[in-house]
Specification:
With 460 residues, the chain is α+β, with helices and mostly antiparallel strands. It has helices spanning 2-36, 38-55, 59-71, 73-93, 116-126, 131-142, 154-157, 165-187, 210-218, 271-274, 295-314, 317-331, 358-368, 372-385, 392-402, and strands at 98-105, 113-114, 150-151, 196-201, 225-230, 241-246, 257-266, 277-281, 287-291, 350-353, 411-418, 422-430. It has two domains: 2-93, no CATH class; 100-449, Thiolase/Chalcone synthase (Peroxisomal Thiolase, Chain A, domain 1), CATH 3.40.47. The protein has 15 helices and twelve strands.
């Protein structure tokens, strides 16, 4: 009896805390809606006042107004001409909108599927890793958040592995042409309609270039531009995303998303940032990529700089006023207040975060105070496809579409990292609801199996 009495106040206390938290959330939500729609409310009030005033006009008042306009016709024409001029200037000088017609993410063949245990065996067969290196790989793999159905290039699946230039070229062709073919099929666009080709790959730099391989394979016309980006990181991994962009406003009904903002932070001027991810030749003559111990700190600093610039463009006025008030209280009045972390869920509906690793996702979730639901596309992409680097953003968006989460006017925030060090943000607005039953992407055939529980540690 006494134990029951002791537990009862504790339960009441927890219920009270939950109720208080819910009340604060409702207050914050109400404040957000009030500030966000303040201008609309103000304009509505002005319209009501003007309409009320107009309804009080008598026939004589309307007759007098007509005579005034008729005898001052020159001024009326000048005002109308000035308004037309302003409209013309606005439409001519405004930035051209960029739209995403559609995208495709490459799904490798089942023969390339590789369990974690199989990966460790293949690493030992390569012959370049000692026992200490293999043990380190195993520890990383056990805590990586990677599942048992990710992919490895065919050249590495063979016994013994055969990582040659010819095999690398074959892999590049498979992932590029596979994604491009699917994109052409989805959009019904023909190769001759393409005006610009951009190919991004971090480390593989053959001659002829990857962009030239695409041009040759699809026999693209001569009057187009091609760009081959190398060493920009991160675009490693056995994955590929293919995106079709357009600036043709008159085809808007065909498009999926509109690009609202894009911002790139480049920290290459800082020596520590520049050298945190580098490609080097080891004493054995083998090429490899080195990651410094400062990587997470550098990535965090780049993300903060990026958010500091992007925030004012995307956050609702309610969050900006709260942030400004906190800053004034802290700097001007020396108040001891906790630094305010803006609620980015008020600005974005979906988040696609670079899956460089589980630690990266954990830190971003913690710093941006995101829920598991918001992080689900990123974590499931890491689990199912592994670290597909830059293309992971498109696997995540494909996961979100396959789940039927994308509705008209939803906003998507894509965050990517790269060597140098760089942090990129892209904000997309959905122009229509995406029906998963009409979509074709890597998740459609197996989306009912996700999400899954990913343990923090899984022994191999």
């Amino acid at each position: 009896m006494s134990e029951s009495n002791a537990i009862s106040p504790l339960i009441k206390s927890k219920l009270s805390d939950i109720k208080q938290s819910l009340k604060l959330n409702y207050v914050k939500l109400g404040y957000h809606y009030l500030i966000t729609h303040a201008m609309l409310l103000f304009l509505s009030l002005i319209v009501v006042i003007i309409a009320t005033h107009i309804f009080t006009f008598s026939l004589q008042d309307l007759h007098d107004l007509w005579h005034y306009l008729r005898y001052n016709l020159v001024y009326v024409v000048i005002c109308l001409a000035f308004l037309v001029f302003l409209l013309i200037v606005y439409f001519v000088t405004r930035a051209q909108s960029i739209y995403l017609v559609d995208f495709a993410s490459y799904k490798p063949k089942d023969v390339c599927k590789c369990t974690r245990q199989r990966f460790m065996e293949l690493s030992s067969f390569i012959g370049t890793f000692n026992e200490q290196s293999l043990e380190f790989q195993r520890k990383i793999m056990e805590r990586s958040g990677i599942g048992e159905s990710t992919y490895v290039p065919e050249a590495l699946m063979r016994i013994p592995p055969n990582p040659s230039l010819a095999e690398a070229r074959k892999e590049a062709e498979a992932v590029m042409f596979g994604a491009i073919d699917e994109l052409f099929e989805k959009t019904k666009v023909k190769p001759k309609d393409i005006g610009i080709v951009i190919v991004n790959c971090s480390l593989f730099n053959p001659a002829s270039s990857l962009a030239s391989m695409v041009v040759n394979h699809y026999k693209l016309p001569k009057n187009f531009l091609s760009f081959n980006l190398i060493g920009m990181g991160c675009s490693a991994g056995n994955g590929r995303g293919c995106i079709l962009l357009s600036s043709r406003r008159w085809d808007r009904r065909r498009f999926k998303y509109q690009l609202l903002h894009i911002f790139r932070t480049n920290k290459a001027a800082n020596d520590k940032c520049f050298s945190c991810v580098t490609q080097n030749a080891y004493s054995t003559g083998m090429l490899g990529v080195s990651l410094s111990k400062d990587l997470m700190a550098v990535a965090g600093d780049a993300l903060k700089t990026n958010i500091r610039t992007l925030g004012p463009l995307v956050l609702p006025m309610s969050e900006q006023l709260l942030f400004f008030g906190t800053l004034v209280g802290k700097k001007l009045f020396k108040m001891k207040v906790k630094p305010l972390i803006p609620d980015f869920t008020l600005a974005f509906n979906h988040f696609c975060i670079h899956v460089g690793g589980r630690v990266v996702l954990d830190e971003i979730q913690k710093n941006l105070q995101l829920t598991y639901w918001h992080m689900e596309p990123s974590r499931m992409t890491l689990y199912r496809f592994g670290n597909t680097s830059s293309s992971s953003l498109w696997y995540e968006l494909a996961y979100t579409e396959a789940n039927g989460r994308i509705k008209k006017s939803h906003r998507v925030w894509q965050i990517a990292f790269g060597s140098g060090f760089k942090c990129n943000s892209a904000v997309w607005k959905a122009l229509r609801k995406v029906n998963p039953e009409k979509e074709k992407n890597p998740w459609i055939d197996e989306i009912d199996q996700f999400p899954v529980d990913v343990p923090e540690f899984s022994a191999i």
